[in-house]
Amino acid sequence: MEVNGLFHSGEFDRWAADYDAEVGRGQGFPFEGYDSVLQRVFERAQVEPRLTVLELGCGTGNLTARFVQAGCRVWGSDFSAEMLKMARRKIAGAHFFQHELGKPLPADVPQRYARIVSTYVFHHFDPAGKIALLNALRAHLEPGGWIVIGDIAFINGEARRQAKQTAGEAWDEEEYWLVEEDLPALRAAGFQAEFEPVSFCAGVFLIEPL
User: Fold this and answer.
1) Which residues pair with 55 in a beta bridge?
2) Omega before 30 cis (within 30°)?
3) Percent of the chain with pLDDT over 70
4) For residue 32, which of 182, 166, 209, 186 has the smallest C-alpha distance?
5) CB–CB of 1/10 below 8 Å?
6) Considering only CA atoms, which of 19, 175, 158, 32 is closest in space to residue 89?
7) Higher pLDDT, 180 or 22
8) Which among 177, 184, 55, 169 is positioned nearest to 124, based on CA atoms?
9) Which of 40, 94, 167, 187 could be disulfide-bonded to 171 (CB atoms 3.0-4.6 Å)?
């Protein structure tokens, strides 16, 4: 699962203490509707007790908690030691491990899961990187499993331009999903994919290998 590393863990380590307060407001770019995004990811995963779940970029465990409470067996990865420290303090019953997205999964964690989920992570990868990562994740899905991603996303270029204008100084030039381009790319790569908008700047992708 090798993809070019794009992250700097120190930045996220420094953010860990304030992360929950910032995202919890759920207003304005980039976290408008944050809690609703997490809830829709959980719902689209269609979980049941004992289901195996891999969460990529679990942060402080806000999504993890929903799956643990539903009785799932959850492995949550993040590359930030401080984010993981916060998650472990908040949540008992999940298996947390430090891992850089795009690197091979550690040998001491399960290699296949019924669901793979992620929120607010994939926008750090360019379009080709997103596809490469998803292609690598195929090998980690159990038969009949699927991937659910909640992230910053825009239906088209005009929606992106409007959001950038509204966001002002809060805007960062990152690789936000552009649905009108990314859905056809996913399908061309051999995935069944659909997108559900949740707010003006975020939504949920349901992705299944064909």
Assistant:
1) 76, 117
2) yes
3) 96
4) 166
5) no
6) 19
7) 180
8) 177
9) 167
pTM of the model: 0.94
- Residues 6 or more apart whose Cβ sits within 8 Å of residue 75: 52, 53, 54, 55, 94, 95, 96, 97, 109, 110, 113
Tell me if 54 sits within 8 A of 116, measured CB to CB. Answer: yes
Please, what sign has the CA dihedral across residues 71, 73, 76, 81?
positive
Residue 45 pLDDT more than 50? Answer: yes
pLDDT band at 2 (very low <50, low <70, confident <90, very high): very low
Sequence-distant (6+) residues with CB within 8 A of 131 are 185, 186, 189
Token pair, residue 10, equals 């120190």
pLDDT value of residue 7: 53
Indicate the range of 16-25, 51-60, 159-168, 176-185 predicted with least confidence.
16-25
**The three-state (H, E, C) secondary structure of the chain, written as one string:** CCCCCCCCHHHHHHHHHHHHHHHHCCCCCCCCCHHHHHHHHHHHHCCCCCCEEEEECCCCCHHHHHHHHCCCEEEEEECCHHHHHHHHHHCCCCEEEECCECECCCCCCCCCEEEEEEECCHHHCCHHHHHHHHHHHHHHEEEEEEEEEEEEEECCHHHHHHHHHHHHHHCCCCCCEEHHHHHHHHHHCCEEEEEEEEECCEEEEEEEEC
* Neighbouring-strand partners of residue 149: 118, 205
Q: What is the mean pLDDT of residues 166-171?
A: 94
